[in-house]
Amino acid sequence: MNPRRWVLLLIISLIISAYGVPYTLLNQTYSWTGAFLFWIVFAVSAILVNIWIASRWRDPR
Predict the structure, then answer these.
(1) 38 touches 26 (CB < 8 A)
(2) Burial of 5 by CB count in 10 Å (0-12 exposed, 13-18 middle, 19+ buried)?
(3) Which of 55, 39, 46 is nearest to 3 (CA)?
(4) 12-29 per-residue burial string, b: 16 or more CB within 10 A, e: under 16
(5) What are phi and psi of 35, to 5 degrees?
């Protein structure tokens, strides 16, 4: 599979999880620790994806 498709698939899955997980899986969680853990994991994964994309960025010249 093309690396661009992997990146696009990863970004789409992050966006879907950002909206889907809090409203579905964490819907009945009344403790703040479940949501806090999810958002920490989400933030770290989003930062790592951004670093990975930026490291592969090349000048087209």
Answers:
(1) yes
(2) exposed
(3) 55
(4) eeeeebeeebbeeebeee
(5) -70, -40
CA distance 22 to 37: 11
3 vs 28: which has the higher pLDDT: 28
Per-residue pLDDT tens over the stretch 12-56: 999 999 888 888 888 887 777 778 888 899 999 999 988 988 887
User: 10: which residues sit within 8 A by CB, 6+ positions away?
Assistant: 49
pLDDT the model gives residue 42: 92
For residue 58 the two structure tokens come to 């090349």
